[in-house]
Amino acid sequence: MTLVAESRETSLSALLRSGSQAEHTAAEGSTFMSELLAGRIDGAGYAHFLGLLRRVYEALETTAAELAHDPVASAVVDPSIERLAAIDADLDHWGRVTVDSPATDAYVARIRASAAWGGLFVAHHYTRYLGDLSGGQAIGRIIGREFGLDGGVGTAFYSFENVPKPKLYKDAYRARLDALPLDDAGRLRVLDEVKAVFALNGGLFAEMTTHLDRYTR
Ligand code: HEM
């Protein structure tokens, strides 16, 4: 089935999920994520990575506030799942570093540009927060184990205090996506942006990979 035909027959949530499967697999297999989850990156490397993510979430959450009443973006915007405070709590543990990151600059610019249409912002929101509420839950546990952390110190980023049951939250999130009044072109535009967001995350991982020699343990 062509993508256009598929977009007519499936819900937006299913389209985004199936349409970005290849990109997801690539992200999962990235060298940086593999090394991190294998426990081969040291604390300084993780602090560097988290510092980059801080800039990403700052842009996401600033843009979300601007679009809180946008008819499309408001389907996903939810201050109760914001991550900036959790990232800051984690950085208190790992330490703050300021590093040049062209990959983060490009990602942040794309998030800011997504304010032009709520559907583009939905793509940014979906790709990060639904990922954090999915694979991110396991990733947080692995990082806690590999770094020998206790009691959630340093891994607040993965812990959604206001979401006791991620599955229920994700089901409701998908229902809100599916209720969006988007035509085929709009749905495909959201999917294209999701793929672009995966690529931007891949760019961030690739950039981290160039620093691996400094951070290997
Ligand atoms: C090692 C890295 C990763 C692992 C192990 C992982 C694992 C997973 C798993 C197990 C799911 C749940 C699939 C399901 O419910 O059937 C998931 C969903 C998801 N992941 Fe990842 N993931 C990783 C990286 C990423 C990255 C880097 C992103 C994006 C920045 C991402 C975005 C998503 C999204 C958006 C979903 C939800 C898909 C949907 O149900 O619509 N993941 N991931």
What topology does this entry show?
Layout: H1 3-9, H2 12-19, H3 21-28, H4 31-37, H5 43-66, H6 84-94, H7 102-113, H8 118-132, H9 135-146, H10 166-178, H11 184-209, H12 212-215
The structure holds protoporphyrin IX containing FE (HEM).
Describe, in plain words, how this protein is organized in 3D.
About 70% of the residues lie in helices and about 0% in strands. It contains 12 helices and no strands. The protein has helices at about 5-10, 10-20, 20-30, 30-35, 45-65, 85-95, 100-115, 120-130, 135-145, 165-180, 185-210, 210-215. Helix 7 runs antiparallel to helix 11 (about 185-210). The longest helix has 26 residues, at about 185-210. The mean pLDDT is about 95. The structure holds protoporphyrin IX containing FE. Protoporphyrin IX containing FE binds near residues 27, 28, 33, 37 and 131.
Order of helices and strands: HHHHHHHHHHHH
**Proportion of residues in helical segments:** 55-70%
User: What count of domains describes the coordinates?
Assistant: 1
* Name of the CATH homologous superfamily: Heme oxygenase-like
Which structural class do you get from the secondary structure elements?
mainly alpha
Tell me the Rg in angstroms.
17 Å
Shape: globular
- Report low-confidence residues grouped into runs of 5 or more: none
In whole angstroms, the N-to-C terminal distance is 47 Å
Got a strand count?
Answer: 0
Bound ligands: protoporphyrin IX containing FE
* Count of discrete alpha- or pi-helical segments spanning 4 or more residues: 12
CATH-scheme architecture? Up-down Bundle
